[in-house]
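Lecture 7 notes: from sequence to structure.

We start with a single chain of 96 residues. Read the sequence below before looking at the structure.
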Amino acid sequence: MTEEREAARVNHDAAMPVYRQLAAILRDQIASGHLAAGRVIPTEKVLMEVHDLGRDSVRKALALLREAQLIESVPGRGTFVTENGQALALEQAKGQ
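Now the structure, written as tokens:
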């Protein structure tokens, strides 16, 4: 993984909504294997702090990833990359 991806941040001045940017950043991290299958993703609080976002924006981004079957939430444990998350993320990236 390149340093660019690790340092990817939401651009608050971009035309694309911030929640879609965050979803794209996380999808790229899943596709690259930085966030591997079965690995817990950062908490909402961490994502809010790192990207200077509100809770609603983070939740919308995570909802997009859930709908795409890239992540799943386990009550009391956290949110994890699905077993086929990397393959799905790569497939979705090709379709864009």
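Strands lie at 71-74, 78-81. Keep this in mind for problem set 3.
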